[in-house]
Amino acid sequence: MATFMWKSVSACTWTPSSMCVRTMKSINTRKKKPMHIMRAKLMAVAERKERPDPRSLAEQCSMRKSIKQPATEKPHLVREYYASLCRQVFSASKLIAVYHTEGLSAAEQNDIKRRLRKNNISLKVYGNSIVQEAITGTELESLRPLFVGSCIIALSEELTVKELLKATRRIPKIHLLGGRVGDQLMSPKGMDDYSKLPPLETLQGQFAGLLTSSLSRPYSLLQANQQRLTMNLDQLVKQGGDSVDGTAEDR
Question: Where does the record place a coiled coil (predicted)?
């Protein structure tokens, strides 16, 4: 009886050795599935094979049509338009000053324009490539080394160097690199020295004074010599007349 009960209990209990585990491998999508053998044979038979060219390699290269000629660069119409506009503005200006900027905002740039507009000075912003294309082959080509980095250009039809430096001296984000005053290229120090000169009318008056003084001195010297000569002649005549009267009385 005990043996029967043990067999019946052991038959109903779960044991690890009799456990069935169902497993499934993941599908490999990275590795390409090989082609069927019959299809591979059919593709190999149907593959097109070109006949070998009997010509030499030099003849093949000389007659090949796939060699393309270097394409000529087409002119950029927008760039040419802005370059011509920049050239016209430069040619009409007697004062050209180039400033280097350190991240000017729109409000700061408008403030500088407002300050310069009071002295009839305009502020322009052009790309360096456009400016270099505009000044190439002109008398302004000496300004080419100044256009490096972020630059703004101050232009005026008058030689208002003093007013320009006074308006931009207190702006810390712009630095004068140089410019052209009249027909002469100047450094920042040269433009500063030029601004300290008196006005042109004063210089013209001083030069005229020097010329008149240089002319008046020889005139005064010549006039003094003439006056001295006439005085000596008068004195000589008087002395000669007295001597003649004395001799007549004696006789």
Answer: none
Task: Residue 116: name the closest of 148, 82, 162, 150 by CA.
Answer: 162
CB atoms within 10 A of CB 75: 7
**Across-strand partners of 122?**
155
The domain locations on the chain are: 77-195
Fold entry, domain 77-195: Alpha-Beta Plaits (3.30.70)
**Nearest of 213, 145, 211 to residue 179 by alpha carbon:** 145
- CA nearest 91: which of 159, 139, 131, 126? 139
CA dihedral 193, 175, 179, 115 (to 10 degrees): -90
Amino acid at 89: V
Closest CA to 93 of 158, 144, 39: 158
pLDDT tens digits for range 10-56 = 555 555 555 555 555 666 667 778 889 999 999 988 888 888 888 87
- Tokens (6 digits) for 77: 């119409």
- For tokens 């000669």, the residue is 240
Question: For residue 98, what pLDDT is reported?
Answer: 92
Residue whose structure tokens are 């593959």: 47
